[in-house]
Structure formats: structure tokens, C-alpha cells
């Protein structure tokens, strides 16, 4: 796991960043509508094309749950998941291509990922497609990590860094659960979908928790090696 940057803020700084995660919290001066984060520049506007795509993606979460638990229209539910995957790719691509990487977008994207994973596992558990221990293990890990955020803030950091293990876990899970939904039937296709779905799920859950353990260990090291930032009064 890449180390969390321990670069300290100069007195009077108004923006705190985790350099590894490229996430900022706090205020910025000036009226340009842009905040410099590492080597990137983020815009503070809400209504950008990537953000609209992220909002459309979020709107699909309750639609997916209704399709799975109401009429049990599994093919339409799979279509919602596929559309979510396409918009997930497009919002990141367009944000970089159009120079519209935004503070809101940096929040919406991981939130949408987590909500889709939560919606899918809850929906599949209520349909008895996956056991409840699977459905509970994923949000439990997120709750434990969110509990570390106040500790990070005591050292002047706003968020946990994202690294390849966490991304690999999310990738596996976002493939696993649609396959398990497709496997809830009979025939060769359903059997193959179930086999591959559980393979992705096992790897995804293991990587999800392993990434969480690494996050917690890195936070522990940060707390031991980094002093609390000095308090400065606003001008």
C-alpha cells in the first residue's frame, strides 16, 4: 500500500490534502472556482457532465432494488447494473478529458460504488441468492473504516487513500453479484454464471477485507509518526 503523505501544512494554509488520495478538505482562497490538489486541478461546480452522469448512476440504485425485489425482473436489473458500469467509466473519462474533475465528483463516485454494492448484496440476500453473512460483511468493513476518519482528522488529513487492492476488490464484487443474479435460474448459462460469480465474490470479499486491514494499519502508523497540526486562527 502506498504510504500516506505526511507532508505538513504551513501556518495559514486553508486546504488540507492527502497527497496519495488526492482528496482535499477545507477552504480555498480566491474566486477562481478551482482548487489545486497535488498535480490535478479540481473545479467546484456542481452541474458538470461527469457529475450529472454520477447522479444518474445514483438514481439507478433504488430502481435496481425495486426490479429485483418487486417484479423480480432480473434481466432489467442486470441492464441497470450494466448502465451503471458504463456511466462509471464515462464520468471518470469525461472528467479527465474535459478538465471537469470536481470536488463533488470525487465524493459521488466512491459513494455510488458503495451504494451499488450494498443494494446488490441486500437484494440478493433478500432473494436468498447469497447468504446474509456475505451481505453483512461488506458494510461492516466500511463502518469500521469510517470510524477511523476522525482519527485521521486529528492529524490534518481528511480521507483514507485509495490504492489498487481496494480498486481490485470493488472490480471483483461489481462482476460477482450480477453473475450471481444471472445464476439464479436453470440451464448451462445459469450454472456457469453461478460458478464464475462465486469465484469473483470470494476473491472480492477477501480483497475487500485485506484492503481494509491495510488501511487500518497505515492509519495506525500515521498516528504514531505524525504530530497533531498546530492550531491557527483565521485572519
Task: Provide tags for this entry.
single chain; 235 residues; mainly alpha; Four Helix Bundle (Hemerythrin (Met), subunit A); two-stranded antiparallel sheet; 62% helix; globular; disordered N terminus; membrane; phospholipid biosynthesis; phosphotransferase activity, for other substituted phosphate groups; CDP_ALCOHOL_P_TRANSF_CS; lipid biosynthesis
Task: Count all strands and give the number.
Answer: 4
**CATH class category name:** Mainly Alpha
What CATH architecture label applies? Up-down Bundle
First and last CA, distance: 38 Å
CATH-assigned fold name: Four Helix Bundle (Hemerythrin (Met), subunit A)
Total helical segments: 7
Strand content: 5-15%
Poorly predicted regions are 1-32, 34-40
Class from secondary-structure proportions: mainly alpha
Note the quaternary state here: single chain
